[in-house]
Amino acid sequence: MTNRAAPGRALSGIRILDLTRILAGPWATQILADLGAEVIKIEHPEGGDDTRSWGPPNVTDDAGQDRGAAYFHSANRGKKSVAIDIAHPEGQRTLRALTKASDVVIENFKVGGLAKYGLDYESLRRIRPDLVYCSITGFGQTGPYADRAGYDFLIQAMGGLMSVTGQSDGTPGAEPMKVGVALTDVLTGLYAVIGILAALRHRDATGEGQQIDMALLDVQVATLANQAMNYLATGKSPTRLGNAHPSIVPYQAFETSDGHVILAIGNDGQFARFCKVAGIPGLADDPRFATNPARVRNRTTLIPILQGVMSGRSMDDWIAGLNEASVPVGPINDLERVFDDPHVRARGMHTRPVDAEGAQLRGVASPLKLSQTPPIPPAAAPDLGADTQSVLTRLLDPLEFDINDLQAAGAVSFKGDRP
Protein backbone atom coordinates (compact mmCIF):
# COMPACT_ATOMS: atom_id res chain seq x y z
CA MET A 1 0.00 0.00 0.00
CA THR A 2 1.11 3.55 -0.67
CA ASN A 3 -0.06 4.88 2.69
CA ARG A 4 -1.49 3.67 5.97
CA ALA A 5 -4.95 2.13 5.93
CA ALA A 6 -7.71 3.87 7.87
CA PRO A 7 -10.00 1.67 9.97
CA GLY A 8 -13.39 0.96 8.46
CA ARG A 9 -12.42 1.70 4.86
CA ALA A 10 -11.86 -1.37 2.74
CA LEU A 11 -9.42 0.20 0.25
CA SER A 12 -7.86 2.94 2.34
CA GLY A 13 -4.11 3.07 1.78
CA ILE A 14 -4.60 2.36 -1.94
CA ARG A 15 -3.90 5.23 -4.34
CA ILE A 16 -5.33 5.20 -7.88
CA LEU A 17 -3.93 7.39 -10.66
CA ASP A 18 -6.96 7.78 -12.94
CA LEU A 19 -6.25 8.73 -16.55
CA THR A 20 -9.72 7.81 -17.80
CA ARG A 21 -12.65 9.82 -19.05
CA ILE A 22 -16.26 9.35 -20.24
CA LEU A 23 -17.82 6.36 -18.44
CA ALA A 24 -16.23 2.87 -18.27
CA GLY A 25 -13.02 3.98 -16.56
CA PRO A 26 -14.61 6.65 -14.35
CA TRP A 27 -17.27 4.13 -13.28
CA ALA A 28 -14.52 1.77 -12.12
CA THR A 29 -12.61 4.43 -10.22
CA GLN A 30 -15.78 5.78 -8.63
CA ILE A 31 -16.40 2.36 -7.11
CA LEU A 32 -12.83 2.25 -5.84
CA ALA A 33 -13.26 5.73 -4.35
CA ASP A 34 -16.51 4.63 -2.67
CA LEU A 35 -14.55 1.87 -0.96
CA GLY A 36 -11.96 4.24 0.43
CA ALA A 37 -9.19 4.34 -2.18
CA GLU A 38 -7.67 7.73 -2.94
CA VAL A 39 -8.52 8.39 -6.58
CA ILE A 40 -6.54 11.14 -8.30
CA LYS A 41 -8.36 12.01 -11.50
CA ILE A 42 -6.00 13.45 -14.09
CA GLU A 43 -7.75 15.90 -16.43
CA HIS A 44 -6.62 18.20 -19.22
CA PRO A 45 -6.46 21.78 -17.96
CA GLU A 46 -8.72 22.99 -20.76
CA GLY A 47 -12.14 21.42 -20.29
CA GLY A 48 -11.19 18.29 -18.38
CA ASP A 49 -13.18 15.08 -18.78
CA ASP A 50 -15.37 15.32 -21.90
CA THR A 51 -18.50 14.63 -19.85
CA ARG A 52 -18.11 17.88 -17.90
CA SER A 53 -19.74 19.51 -20.95
CA TRP A 54 -22.26 16.73 -21.69
CA GLY A 55 -25.22 18.76 -20.53
CA PRO A 56 -27.81 19.98 -19.96
CA PRO A 57 -29.10 18.79 -17.65
CA ASN A 58 -26.66 20.23 -15.15
CA VAL A 59 -26.37 19.79 -11.39
CA THR A 60 -26.94 22.73 -9.05
CA ASP A 61 -25.83 22.85 -5.43
CA ASP A 62 -27.94 23.93 -2.46
CA ALA A 63 -26.99 27.55 -3.15
CA GLY A 64 -28.33 27.31 -6.69
CA GLN A 65 -24.88 27.41 -8.32
CA ASP A 66 -24.36 25.48 -11.56
CA ARG A 67 -21.87 22.65 -10.93
CA GLY A 68 -21.68 21.21 -14.44
CA ALA A 69 -23.18 18.32 -16.36
CA ALA A 70 -25.18 15.71 -14.45
CA TYR A 71 -23.46 13.07 -16.61
CA PHE A 72 -20.06 13.94 -15.11
CA HIS A 73 -21.44 13.80 -11.58
CA SER A 74 -22.88 10.33 -12.22
CA ALA A 75 -19.42 8.75 -12.43
CA ASN A 76 -16.93 10.92 -10.52
CA ARG A 77 -17.97 11.28 -6.89
CA GLY A 78 -15.33 11.00 -4.22
CA LYS A 79 -12.34 11.78 -6.44
CA LYS A 80 -9.64 14.45 -6.51
CA SER A 81 -9.22 16.45 -9.72
CA VAL A 82 -5.65 17.29 -10.77
CA ALA A 83 -5.26 19.25 -14.00
CA ILE A 84 -2.15 18.17 -15.92
CA ASP A 85 -1.30 18.53 -19.61
CA ILE A 86 0.14 15.13 -20.50
CA ALA A 87 1.42 16.50 -23.81
CA HIS A 88 3.75 18.85 -21.91
CA PRO A 89 7.14 17.31 -20.98
CA GLU A 90 6.85 18.63 -17.45
CA GLY A 91 3.35 17.21 -17.24
CA GLN A 92 4.73 13.82 -18.21
CA ARG A 93 7.51 14.11 -15.63
CA THR A 94 4.90 15.00 -13.02
CA LEU A 95 2.78 11.98 -13.89
CA ARG A 96 5.75 9.66 -13.69
CA ALA A 97 6.45 10.99 -10.20
CA LEU A 98 2.81 10.45 -9.23
CA THR A 99 3.05 6.88 -10.55
CA LYS A 100 5.85 6.17 -8.06
CA ALA A 101 3.44 7.18 -5.30
CA SER A 102 0.49 5.17 -6.64
CA ASP A 103 -0.61 1.54 -6.52
CA VAL A 104 -2.75 1.56 -9.67
CA VAL A 105 -2.79 3.42 -12.98
CA ILE A 106 -5.99 3.11 -15.02
CA GLU A 107 -6.32 4.57 -18.52
CA ASN A 108 -8.61 4.37 -21.55
CA PHE A 109 -6.48 5.82 -24.33
CA LYS A 110 -6.31 4.15 -27.73
CA VAL A 111 -3.86 1.24 -27.95
CA GLY A 112 -0.34 2.66 -27.88
CA GLY A 113 -1.62 6.20 -27.30
CA LEU A 114 0.36 6.76 -24.11
CA ALA A 115 3.65 5.28 -25.32
CA LYS A 116 4.71 8.54 -26.98
CA TYR A 117 4.43 10.24 -23.59
CA GLY A 118 6.32 7.53 -21.73
CA LEU A 119 3.17 6.72 -19.79
CA ASP A 120 2.44 3.23 -21.16
CA TYR A 121 2.72 0.13 -19.00
CA GLU A 122 6.19 -0.88 -20.16
CA SER A 123 7.56 2.59 -19.38
CA LEU A 124 5.88 2.95 -16.00
CA ARG A 125 6.66 -0.55 -14.77
CA ARG A 126 10.35 0.44 -14.90
CA ILE A 127 9.52 3.20 -12.43
CA ARG A 128 7.37 1.01 -10.19
CA PRO A 129 7.74 -2.75 -10.84
CA ASP A 130 4.78 -3.70 -8.63
CA LEU A 131 2.43 -1.33 -10.47
CA VAL A 132 -1.07 -2.53 -11.36
CA TYR A 133 -1.90 -0.95 -14.72
CA CYS A 134 -5.42 -1.28 -16.13
CA SER A 135 -6.06 -0.42 -19.78
CA ILE A 136 -9.64 -0.07 -21.03
CA THR A 137 -10.32 0.03 -24.78
CA GLY A 138 -13.12 -0.90 -27.12
CA PHE A 139 -11.47 -4.01 -28.54
CA GLY A 140 -8.46 -4.80 -26.34
CA GLN A 141 -4.71 -4.59 -26.77
CA THR A 142 -4.56 -7.42 -29.36
CA GLY A 143 -6.61 -8.69 -32.29
CA PRO A 144 -7.51 -7.29 -35.72
CA TYR A 145 -9.71 -4.51 -34.27
CA ALA A 146 -7.27 -3.35 -31.60
CA ASP A 147 -6.60 -0.01 -33.29
CA ARG A 148 -10.27 0.88 -33.68
CA ALA A 149 -12.12 3.30 -31.43
CA GLY A 150 -14.94 1.61 -29.54
CA TYR A 151 -18.01 3.20 -27.98
CA ASP A 152 -20.77 1.64 -25.93
CA PHE A 153 -23.48 1.98 -28.60
CA LEU A 154 -21.23 0.42 -31.22
CA ILE A 155 -20.23 -2.42 -28.91
CA GLN A 156 -23.85 -3.16 -27.93
CA ALA A 157 -24.44 -3.70 -31.65
CA MET A 158 -21.28 -5.65 -32.49
CA GLY A 159 -21.39 -7.71 -29.30
CA GLY A 160 -24.90 -9.07 -29.88
CA LEU A 161 -26.86 -7.24 -27.18
CA MET A 162 -28.98 -5.27 -29.64
CA SER A 163 -29.87 -8.44 -31.54
CA VAL A 164 -31.78 -9.71 -28.49
CA THR A 165 -33.18 -6.32 -27.37
CA GLY A 166 -36.35 -4.82 -28.86
CA GLN A 167 -39.72 -5.89 -30.15
CA SER A 168 -40.10 -9.12 -32.11
CA ASP A 169 -39.96 -9.01 -35.88
CA GLY A 170 -43.40 -8.47 -37.35
CA THR A 171 -44.68 -6.41 -34.39
CA PRO A 172 -45.08 -2.62 -34.17
CA GLY A 173 -41.77 -0.82 -33.57
CA ALA A 174 -39.71 -3.92 -34.33
CA GLU A 175 -35.99 -3.17 -34.73
CA PRO A 176 -32.80 -3.94 -32.82
CA MET A 177 -32.63 -1.64 -29.79
CA LYS A 178 -29.88 -0.46 -27.47
CA VAL A 179 -30.30 -0.55 -23.71
CA GLY A 180 -31.40 2.75 -22.15
CA VAL A 181 -28.12 3.26 -20.28
CA ALA A 182 -24.56 2.70 -21.53
CA LEU A 183 -24.62 -0.77 -20.03
CA THR A 184 -21.48 -2.10 -21.72
CA ASP A 185 -19.46 0.77 -20.28
CA VAL A 186 -20.91 0.18 -16.81
CA LEU A 187 -20.25 -3.57 -16.96
CA THR A 188 -16.70 -2.97 -18.20
CA GLY A 189 -16.15 -0.65 -15.25
CA LEU A 190 -17.34 -3.37 -12.89
CA TYR A 191 -15.05 -5.99 -14.46
CA ALA A 192 -12.16 -3.52 -14.31
CA VAL A 193 -12.69 -3.19 -10.56
CA ILE A 194 -12.66 -6.97 -10.19
CA GLY A 195 -9.44 -7.22 -12.20
CA ILE A 196 -7.77 -4.44 -10.22
CA LEU A 197 -8.68 -6.01 -6.89
CA ALA A 198 -7.41 -9.41 -8.07
CA ALA A 199 -4.15 -7.85 -9.29
CA LEU A 200 -3.67 -6.01 -5.99
CA ARG A 201 -4.18 -9.29 -4.12
CA HIS A 202 -1.54 -10.92 -6.33
CA ARG A 203 0.81 -7.99 -5.81
CA ASP A 204 0.43 -8.16 -2.06
CA ALA A 205 1.16 -11.91 -2.14
CA THR A 206 4.08 -11.86 -4.59
CA GLY A 207 5.30 -8.29 -5.04
CA GLU A 208 4.54 -8.52 -8.77
CA GLY A 209 2.58 -5.94 -10.74
CA GLN A 210 0.76 -6.61 -14.00
CA GLN A 211 -1.25 -5.09 -16.82
CA ILE A 212 -5.00 -5.67 -17.07
CA ASP A 213 -6.35 -5.65 -20.63
CA MET A 214 -10.07 -4.75 -20.50
CA ALA A 215 -12.06 -4.66 -23.76
CA LEU A 216 -15.65 -3.51 -24.05
CA LEU A 217 -16.33 -6.14 -26.73
CA ASP A 218 -14.99 -8.94 -24.51
CA VAL A 219 -17.21 -7.80 -21.66
CA GLN A 220 -20.28 -7.54 -23.89
CA VAL A 221 -19.80 -11.06 -25.23
CA ALA A 222 -19.18 -12.44 -21.73
CA THR A 223 -22.28 -10.81 -20.27
CA LEU A 224 -24.69 -12.20 -22.86
CA ALA A 225 -25.02 -14.90 -20.19
CA ASN A 226 -27.83 -17.37 -20.94
CA GLN A 227 -28.38 -15.92 -24.42
CA ALA A 228 -24.81 -16.80 -25.39
CA MET A 229 -25.14 -20.30 -23.98
CA ASN A 230 -28.50 -20.75 -25.70
CA TYR A 231 -26.73 -20.11 -29.00
CA LEU A 232 -23.76 -22.37 -28.19
CA ALA A 233 -26.14 -25.15 -27.11
CA THR A 234 -28.32 -25.01 -30.24
CA GLY A 235 -26.38 -23.25 -32.99
CA LYS A 236 -29.37 -20.91 -33.39
CA SER A 237 -29.08 -17.18 -32.70
CA PRO A 238 -31.70 -16.02 -30.17
CA THR A 239 -34.20 -13.51 -31.50
CA ARG A 240 -35.77 -10.39 -30.03
CA LEU A 241 -38.76 -11.08 -27.82
CA GLY A 242 -39.61 -7.60 -26.58
CA ASN A 243 -40.24 -7.90 -22.84
CA ALA A 244 -40.65 -11.67 -22.94
CA HIS A 245 -38.04 -14.20 -21.79
CA PRO A 246 -36.70 -16.94 -24.07
CA SER A 247 -36.72 -19.65 -21.38
CA ILE A 248 -39.34 -18.63 -18.78
CA VAL A 249 -43.09 -18.10 -19.24
CA PRO A 250 -44.89 -15.95 -18.11
CA TYR A 251 -42.04 -13.51 -17.57
CA GLN A 252 -42.93 -10.22 -19.27
CA ALA A 253 -44.99 -7.04 -19.17
CA PHE A 254 -48.77 -7.21 -19.07
CA GLU A 255 -51.28 -4.42 -19.53
CA THR A 256 -53.74 -3.88 -16.69
CA SER A 257 -56.78 -1.63 -16.68
CA ASP A 258 -54.66 1.43 -15.83
CA GLY A 259 -51.05 0.67 -16.74
CA HIS A 260 -48.42 -2.03 -17.17
CA VAL A 261 -46.91 -4.41 -14.63
CA ILE A 262 -44.11 -6.93 -14.84
CA LEU A 263 -45.07 -10.50 -14.02
CA ALA A 264 -41.91 -12.53 -13.33
CA ILE A 265 -42.98 -16.09 -12.58
CA GLY A 266 -39.92 -18.28 -12.10
CA ASN A 267 -41.34 -21.66 -11.12
CA ASP A 268 -44.46 -23.82 -11.29
CA GLY A 269 -45.50 -23.10 -7.71
CA GLN A 270 -45.58 -19.38 -8.43
CA PHE A 271 -47.65 -20.02 -11.55
CA ALA A 272 -50.19 -22.04 -9.57
CA ARG A 273 -50.47 -19.26 -6.98
CA PHE A 274 -50.87 -16.68 -9.72
CA CYS A 275 -53.68 -18.67 -11.30
CA LYS A 276 -55.47 -18.88 -7.94
CA VAL A 277 -55.24 -15.09 -7.41
CA ALA A 278 -56.33 -14.54 -11.03
CA GLY A 279 -59.41 -16.75 -10.55
CA ILE A 280 -58.28 -19.34 -13.11
CA PRO A 281 -56.91 -22.18 -10.92
CA GLY A 282 -57.64 -24.83 -13.51
CA LEU A 283 -55.06 -23.32 -15.87
CA ALA A 284 -52.24 -24.49 -13.61
CA ASP A 285 -53.39 -28.10 -14.02
CA ASP A 286 -53.69 -27.90 -17.80
CA PRO A 287 -50.89 -30.12 -19.22
CA ARG A 288 -50.11 -27.40 -21.77
CA PHE A 289 -49.22 -24.98 -18.96
CA ALA A 290 -48.49 -27.02 -15.82
CA THR A 291 -44.69 -26.88 -16.18
CA ASN A 292 -42.36 -24.17 -17.40
CA PRO A 293 -41.10 -26.18 -20.42
CA ALA A 294 -44.73 -26.72 -21.43
CA ARG A 295 -45.50 -23.02 -20.99
CA VAL A 296 -42.49 -22.09 -23.12
CA ARG A 297 -43.68 -24.43 -25.89
CA ASN A 298 -47.22 -23.06 -25.70
CA ARG A 299 -46.50 -19.40 -24.98
CA THR A 300 -48.48 -18.20 -28.05
CA THR A 301 -51.59 -19.84 -26.62
CA LEU A 302 -51.03 -18.93 -22.97
CA ILE A 303 -50.05 -15.26 -23.19
CA PRO A 304 -53.30 -14.04 -24.83
CA ILE A 305 -55.28 -15.86 -22.12
CA LEU A 306 -53.26 -14.19 -19.37
CA GLN A 307 -53.44 -10.79 -21.05
CA GLY A 308 -57.22 -11.05 -21.16
CA VAL A 309 -57.30 -11.75 -17.43
CA MET A 310 -54.72 -9.08 -16.48
CA SER A 311 -56.53 -6.30 -18.29
CA GLY A 312 -59.58 -6.72 -16.06
CA ARG A 313 -57.98 -5.34 -12.88
CA SER A 314 -55.92 -2.31 -11.89
CA MET A 315 -52.16 -2.22 -11.31
CA ASP A 316 -52.57 -1.72 -7.58
CA ASP A 317 -55.05 -4.58 -7.33
CA TRP A 318 -52.70 -7.01 -9.06
CA ILE A 319 -49.63 -5.84 -7.13
CA ALA A 320 -51.36 -6.16 -3.76
CA GLY A 321 -52.91 -9.55 -4.47
CA LEU A 322 -49.87 -11.15 -6.07
CA ASN A 323 -47.41 -9.86 -3.48
CA GLU A 324 -49.66 -11.30 -0.78
CA ALA A 325 -49.39 -14.66 -2.60
CA SER A 326 -45.57 -14.34 -3.00
CA VAL A 327 -45.78 -14.04 -6.76
CA PRO A 328 -43.12 -11.65 -8.20
CA VAL A 329 -44.84 -8.59 -9.68
CA GLY A 330 -44.09 -4.89 -9.87
CA PRO A 331 -44.83 -1.63 -11.66
CA ILE A 332 -42.79 -0.11 -14.47
CA ASN A 333 -41.55 3.02 -12.73
CA ASP A 334 -40.19 6.17 -14.24
CA LEU A 335 -37.28 7.79 -12.41
CA GLU A 336 -39.56 10.04 -10.37
CA ARG A 337 -41.37 6.98 -9.00
CA VAL A 338 -38.05 5.18 -8.48
CA PHE A 339 -36.65 7.84 -6.16
CA ASP A 340 -40.02 8.26 -4.46
CA ASP A 341 -40.32 4.52 -3.78
CA PRO A 342 -40.37 3.89 -0.02
CA HIS A 343 -37.98 0.95 -0.30
CA VAL A 344 -35.47 2.92 -2.40
CA ARG A 345 -35.68 5.73 0.16
CA ALA A 346 -35.24 3.29 3.04
CA ARG A 347 -32.12 1.85 1.38
CA GLY A 348 -30.59 5.34 1.17
CA MET A 349 -30.05 5.36 -2.59
CA HIS A 350 -30.66 9.11 -2.96
CA THR A 351 -27.85 11.03 -1.29
CA ARG A 352 -26.75 14.61 -0.64
CA PRO A 353 -22.99 14.61 -1.35
CA VAL A 354 -20.96 17.53 -0.04
CA ASP A 355 -18.02 19.20 -1.76
CA ALA A 356 -14.81 20.48 -0.18
CA GLU A 357 -16.37 23.88 0.58
CA GLY A 358 -19.43 22.32 2.21
CA ALA A 359 -21.87 22.90 -0.65
CA GLN A 360 -24.49 20.18 -0.92
CA LEU A 361 -25.52 18.53 -4.20
CA ARG A 362 -27.79 15.64 -5.12
CA GLY A 363 -26.49 12.20 -6.02
CA VAL A 364 -26.95 8.45 -6.16
CA ALA A 365 -25.47 6.20 -3.48
CA SER A 366 -23.20 3.22 -3.86
CA PRO A 367 -25.27 0.01 -3.71
CA LEU A 368 -22.57 -1.76 -1.68
CA LYS A 369 -23.63 -2.52 1.87
CA LEU A 370 -20.65 -3.84 3.88
CA SER A 371 -21.14 -4.35 7.60
CA GLN A 372 -17.55 -3.57 8.64
CA THR A 373 -16.18 -1.42 5.80
CA PRO A 374 -19.09 0.45 4.21
CA PRO A 375 -18.54 2.96 1.41
CA ILE A 376 -17.26 6.32 2.58
CA PRO A 377 -19.76 9.16 3.08
CA PRO A 378 -20.61 10.53 -0.37
CA ALA A 379 -18.39 13.37 -1.56
CA ALA A 380 -19.38 15.45 -4.57
CA ALA A 381 -17.54 15.12 -7.87
CA PRO A 382 -14.69 17.67 -7.92
CA ASP A 383 -14.43 20.88 -9.89
CA LEU A 384 -11.75 20.83 -12.57
CA GLY A 385 -8.30 21.24 -10.98
CA ALA A 386 -9.76 21.57 -7.50
CA ASP A 387 -7.04 19.38 -5.98
CA THR A 388 -4.03 20.11 -8.21
CA GLN A 389 -2.20 22.23 -5.67
CA SER A 390 -2.91 20.11 -2.59
CA VAL A 391 -2.13 16.76 -4.27
CA LEU A 392 1.10 17.91 -5.94
CA THR A 393 2.29 19.63 -2.77
CA ARG A 394 1.70 16.46 -0.80
CA LEU A 395 3.07 13.88 -3.25
CA LEU A 396 5.87 15.54 -5.22
CA ASP A 397 9.42 15.88 -3.92
CA PRO A 398 10.00 19.64 -3.44
CA LEU A 399 13.66 19.15 -4.30
CA GLU A 400 12.64 17.91 -7.76
CA PHE A 401 9.47 19.90 -8.44
CA ASP A 402 8.38 23.47 -7.90
CA ILE A 403 4.62 23.45 -8.46
CA ASN A 404 4.56 27.18 -9.14
CA ASP A 405 7.08 26.64 -11.93
CA LEU A 406 4.91 23.79 -13.28
CA GLN A 407 1.94 26.14 -13.29
CA ALA A 408 3.88 28.93 -14.94
CA ALA A 409 5.09 26.55 -17.66
CA GLY A 410 1.51 25.48 -18.41
CA ALA A 411 2.13 21.86 -17.41
CA VAL A 412 -0.47 21.99 -14.64
CA SER A 413 -3.26 24.32 -13.60
CA PHE A 414 -5.08 25.04 -10.39
CA LYS A 415 -8.81 25.52 -10.01
CA GLY A 416 -9.85 28.75 -11.71
CA ASP A 417 -6.63 29.13 -13.75
CA ARG A 418 -8.42 28.69 -17.05
CA PRO A 419 -12.00 28.95 -18.28
UniProtKB/TrEMBL annotation:
Keyword Transferase: yes
Keyword Endoplasmic reticulum part of the UniProt annotation: no
Lineage: superkingdom: Bacteria
Keywords per UniProt: Transferase
InterPro entries named in the record: CoA-transferase_III_domain, CoA-Trfase_fam_III, CoA-Trfase_III_dom3_sf, CoA-Trfase_III_dom_1_sf
Matches recorded under Gene3D superfamilies: Crotonobetainyl-coa:carnitine coa-transferase, domain 1, formyl-coa transferase, domain 3
Any one GO molecular-function label of the UniProt entry: CoA-transferase activity
Name this protein carries in UniProt: Crotonobetainyl-CoA:carnitine CoA-transferase CaiB-like acyl-CoA transferase
Source species: Primorskyibacter sedentarius
